[in-house]
C-alpha cells in the first residue's frame, strides 16, 4: 500500500527566528590619508572599542595605523 502524498505539507511546529550574527565587517582606513583600506571582521560583543591595527599601506609603501570606520 502507498501512503497518501496528495495533500499539502502542513508543518507541525514553527521554526523560531534566527539569532543575529555576532561578527560584523568593518573598514580599516589608513591614517596616511592615501584612501587605501582593508576589510576585517570583528566580534562586536567582545571588542566594543574601535579597532586599530598597524598594517602595510602599499600606496604609502610603509606600515601605518589603520583605524576602524563603518562600511557604507
From TrEMBL:
Coiled coil spans: none
Listed GO biological process terms: translation
Keyword field: Ribonucleoprotein, Ribosomal protein
Keyword Ribonucleoprotein: yes
GO cellular component terms, A-Z: cytosolic large ribosomal subunit
Top-rank taxon, per record: Bacteria
One Gene Ontology MF term: structural constituent of ribosome
Entries under Gene3D superfamilies matching the protein: Ribosomal protein L33
InterPro entries, alphabetized: Ribosomal_bL33, Ribosomal_bL33_sf, Ribosomal_zn-bd
Similarity comment: Belongs to the bacterial ribosomal protein bL33 family.
Protein name: Large ribosomal subunit protein bL33
